[in-house]
Every structure is written in structure tokens, then in C-alpha cells.
Specification:
The protein has 139 residues and is α+β, with helices and mostly antiparallel strands. 31% of the residues lie in helices and 20% in strands. This is CBS domain-containing protein.
Length: 139
């Protein structure tokens, strides 16, 4: 019999998060500094949206900036707020949701990360990369 393994075993718990009052320049710097592609947007410990690096690319030329550069062109970023660019009404899972169920959600939706929320509090994030790494360990 197969064991049901919870997503809490593979999710990232050391979260990088943004507040709705942060600007998009800060978001880009966090994406590049930590080599991540998804950042939850929170008010306190409550998730209110999700910002992906792809969201930034849609409104800017962020990929044209050298990753080692600390200066970014903020002209486009100053035209938008995080609230305007982030995805709202985010699909979430709890930490005891099975890895299989998370894989099914990510396989059928058009996003690549799920916030993990317990009792209304953001406790982690799981991405398609987390799933692939888990599967590689199983082989």
C-alpha cells in the first residue's frame, strides 16, 4: 500500500514575501537575489496574492537586465503597483495536502506554484521544481 505523503515534506518553508506596499523594483531584486520565480504577497501572515517573475516580464524588459547588475530601469515599474500586477484569488493548499493532489493541481492549471496555508496563515510554497526534485529522488 502506498503511503500518502504530505506536501509539507517538500515545500519551501523559508519564505521570501512581498507586501502590497512594496514596489516592483524590490520584487525584481528579490527574484534575482534568491533565484526564485514566485513570491507570495502578504498582509501580515495572510496571503493576498502571488507575483511571478513572468508577471514582471509581461510589463517590462526585466530579462534584458544583467543578473549581476544592481541598478534596474525603474521607469516601467513606477507605472504599476504590486496590486495591479499580482494574481489575486490564489489557489492554495494546506500542509497536509498530498503531494499527488498538488501535482494534479499544478498539472491542470496555468501556474507553477501553490502557496501552502494552514488556518489562514501562509506556512510555505510548493513549486513544480519542488515536485520534480521529489520525483528525481524517488527514481
Amino acid at each position: 500500500m502506498r503511503q500518502i505523503i504530505p506536501v509539507s515534506t517538500i515545500m519551501s518553508k523559508n519564505l521570501i514575501a512581498l507586501n502590497r506596499t512594496d514596489d516592483l523594483e524590490r520584487a525584481e531584486l528579490l527574484f534575482k537575489r534568491y533565484g526564485i520565480r514566485h513570491i507570495p504577497v502578504v498582509t501580515g501572515d495572510t496571503i493576498i496574492g502571488m507575483l511571478s517573475y513572468t508577471d514582471l516580464l509581461r510589463i517590462s524588459f526585466a530579462d534584458a537586465v544583467d543578473e549581476d547588475e544592481s541598478e534596474v530601469d525603474t521607469l516601467v515599474y513606477n507605472m504599476f503597483t504590486i496590486d495591479q500586477v499580482m494574481v489575486k484569488n490564489v489557489t492554495t493548499v494546506s500542509s497536509n495536502t498530498s503531494i499527488k493532489e498538488v501535482a494534479q493541481i499544478l498539472a491542470t492549471k496555468e501556474f507553477h506554484a501553490l502557496p501552502v496555508v494552514d488556518d489562514g496563515i501562509l506556512v510555505g510554497i510548493v513549486t513544480t521544481t519542488d515536485l520534480i526534485n521529489y520525483l528525481l529522488k524517488q527514481l
